[in-house]
Prior knowledge:
This protein has one helix at 2-13; strands at 21-27, 35-38, 43-48, 51-56, 62-65, 71-75, 79-86, 97-103, 108-114, 118-123, 127-132, 141-145, 150-153, 162-164, 170-174, 180-185. By secondary structure, the protein is mostly beta strands. The protein has a four-stranded antiparallel beta sheet with strand order 1-16-15-14, with no helix packed on it. It has a four-stranded antiparallel beta sheet with strand order 2-3-4-5, with no helix packed on it. The longest helix is centred in the first third of the chain and has 12 residues, at 2-13.
Amino acid sequence: MIKQIILYILSLLFPKDETIYVKEYMIDTKYIPQEIVWIDDINVLLSSSGYTEIFNTNNRKKNIIETCENCIYGYDFGFIYCRYINRNINSWDEFSTTIEVYDINDDLLFSKDIFPTVVPTVCRKDFVILKTNDPNLEEKTYILDIESNTLNEDFNKEVQREWYSKDMKRKIIIGEDYRLWVYVRNK
C-alpha cells in the first residue's frame, strides 16, 4: 500500500510525457489483413489468406506478393509462409487439417496433421495461430507450438488492433470502420 502511494506521489511530481500519434492517411488495400508485421521502420507486411503485400509507409507504394490461395505469409527475421489443407472427414479418427510452414525458398520447415478444421492467421517460425474454419463449429483460436509440437486452445480473446514500427515513430491501426490507418508520432 505504501509503495502505491509513493509511486502515485512520484507520478504527480514527475509526470511522464504522453506519446501522441496523429492520423496521417488510410492504406488502400484489397483486404483487411489477418497479420500485420513491421519488417523495418518504414515497410510493413500486410497478409491475409491468399493475398499479401508489402507496403512502404514513406512513399505509400505497395508490392503485391504472389500468394497461394491457402497460404498466409509472415515475417520472423525473414519471410516464411504457412499453408493449410482442409479436407472432409468421415470419422473422428481422421485429421481434417494439415498445417505446413515453409521458408522463402519453399523448404518445408514443419508439418502437422490436426483434427479441428482451422486456418492460420499468424505465421511464425516458432508458432502458428489458428482459427476455426468451419461454420458448423464454435469459433475458437488455437496456438500450434512448433518447438513442442503441441496444439492448445488460446483463451486470450483480445484482438490486436495496433501495430507499432520498430522505432515507435509510426503505428497502424485497424479502425472501427475496418480500414487501415497510418498514424505518425507527433511528440
